[in-house]
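Student:
Attend to each token:
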Amino acid sequence: MKIAILIVRILLGALMVFASVAYFFDLVEAEAPTGDMLTFMTGIMASKYLLPLAKTIELIAGLSLLSGKFMKVTLLALLPISVNIFLIHTVTQVSEVPVAIFVLGANLFLIYAHWDSYKDLFKAN
């Protein structure tokens, strides 16, 4: 199990770092969005801050996962982004669903693997 956790952690961290670095340095030419994805991205881009904020959090989370430092809080910070990635791609851009499933699944797997650290968050006082 420790090897699986390490592999998933490194893959998820590398994916987050690559996605954010590619965004900030415009390394990958993305295909132009169409349909619902175009409408969604137009709104996101109109906000001016939302996509850079999400990509900054992805970068910090990716570096944390790769280094193994602050991982447990990082997984919680990454959870809403992972869910959003999954929902965006299942609703608007079905071609990217496998990557979205990996991101959400890896995040949930890592949270499950460290569940003892999160139990107290769900206890009623």
